[in-house]
Amino acid sequence: MNSQQADIGMIGLAVMGQNLALNIADHGYTIAVYNRHAEKMKDFISQCEKNEPSSSRLLGAETLEELAGKLKRPRKIILLVKAGEATDKTIDSLLPYLEAGDIVIDGGNANWMDTIRREKDLNAKGLRFIGSGVSGGETGARFGPSLMPGGSAEAWAELAPIWNAVAAKVDAQTGVPLPGAAPGKPVEGGVPCTAHIGPNGAGHYVKMVHNGIEYIDMQLICEAYWLLKNLLGLESDAIGKVFQAWNQGELSSYLIEITGDILLQPDPAGEGYFVDKVLDTAGQKGTGLWTATSALELGVPANSIAEAVFARCLSALKDERVEASKVLQGPEAKMEKDQARLVAAIRDALYSSKICAYAQGFQLMAEAQKVYGWSLDFGTLAQIWRGGCIIRAKFLQKITDAYAIDPNLKNLMLDPYFRDALHSGQNHWREVVSLAVLNGIPTPAFSSALAYFDGYRSARLPANLLQAQRDYFGAHTYERIDQPRGQFFHLDWPAENRPQLKA
Ligand code: NBP
């Protein structure tokens, strides 16, 4: 074997790197693999030699110099290392072995601003850089992830054959993910769940929003579960069956499907159901927080996405909550009698809230593209999320359809399909949120999504008073409804108009 045989290189052989490397090898590409601690690379290669049909296409490298030496020119090298400082350190260590025209592909969950900076730095050295979101966790990486690459069009053109080959595939007509990939036997045909997202940080921004949407999708499902449990007194298995039934309709999605599986899972360590034994605290990593922060910075009302992050933060205060539960009182939850009716109502509340959550995510990306100079194709984004990623869902086809009807759609809620779904679901949605409030069951995502819907559809909001307050105490000025927009006034508040303290 000559030393320049590998089509592509991989740095980072933790769970994502190993699985994506095998996926690439399964598709007939030779891949040189490297890990900072070489033992991991050696273990990986020797495990693969025992179990993996494509192991002959994996070439181990103990040093970055060796890795670079094994690659065809111009080199393509994927990084799947811990996001942040580790990525910068890895790039710095790799630089001495790269030549003009080589392409570094960061598949980690990088912050899009880091990606913009890294691309600029590498371009200045004659190198090319692609920041690609990789979604779908371990299984996605192994058998077909959703891939969201950002970078120059010409760098993308060189990576595209490999990215198109290894991405998840969906049926061209139905948009349903094609099943059946197995080690050494990739799926044949279908439409790949990847596309060039845009320049520099566009791919990582879109991946971040994907993760923000994943946060809210999961939180909404948790609230539906909690309402079914606390308003109907259903056991986990009965709730699992409700989710299985929901998975047959409009809500059909990977997250609804796995929720059904999880709820039906008995506890392997004892009596009862597994989910009832799991501690109720959730962690949150960078991307959900970044999505909420970006929404705040760009002034986009993605309140439900932010609520999903806060809900995790509140869950993490377990000890405080346990103490507070002994001090702070609320209403006793009253069991509802009409099970079928409430299940249908919660389903509608979930679907309506989900529409709002996605509307927020897409509104955020629409604003971001203006700020960062991207030109995102929203129909394509929904399309490449139909397979491979955690938020894959039947529903995404409706989003693609909505942008096909109107590429300049201002908000998903205005599309006729989604508008009608919200109109037909809203009575149930309001009833469910009211029941939650009356019974003291926290539903921050359901409630904030409804507030978003009601706020967005209100021609007039009480911000008139707010702006008047700002003018009163800070001379912040206001616009008038009877004057053209953009003209600002200030009322010289006379002392006698100010509230007087009564003696
Ligand atoms: P981790 O995020 O746990 O990172 C571990 C890898 O980073 C190991 O290969 C480790 O090498 C390497 N690394 C570290 Br830590 N510091 C390094 C340094 N200074 N120089 C070189 N290598 C260093 O791995 P992962 O879970 O496979 O994720 C990889 C990337 O993919 C991350 O950015 C992650 O956010 C993203 N991602 C993960 C998932 C998922 O489901 N896990 C999904 C989508 C995206 P070592 O073995 O020598 O310590």
Commentary on this structure:
By secondary structure, the chain is of the alpha/beta class. Helix content is 52%, strand content 7%. The model has no long low-confidence stretch (mean pLDDT 95). The structure holds nicotinamide 8-bromo-adenine dinucleotide phosphate.
Q: How would you name the oligomeric state of the polypeptide chains in this document?
A: single chain
CATH architecture of the largest domain: Orthogonal Bundle
Classification by helices and strands: alpha/beta
Radius of gyration from the CA trace? 26 Å
CATH superfamily placement of the largest domain: N-(1-d-carboxylethyl)-l-norvaline Dehydrogenase, domain 2
* Biggest sheet statistics: 7 strands, mixed
Q: Any idea of the CATH topology of the largest domain?
A: N-(1-d-carboxylethyl)-l-norvaline Dehydrogenase, domain 2
- Total DSSP helices: 19
Termini separation:
96 Å
> Which CATH class of the largest domain applies here?
Mainly Alpha
Spatial order of the strands forming the largest sheet: 3-2-1-4-5-6-7
Ligands in the model, by name, code or SMILES, are: nicotinamide 8-bromo-adenine dinucleotide phosphate
Unreliably modeled segments: none
Q: Classify the helix fraction into a percent range.
A: 40-55%
Q: What is the average per-residue confidence, as pLDDT, rounded to a whole number?
A: 95
The tally of strands reads 9
- Beta-strand fraction estimate: 5-15%
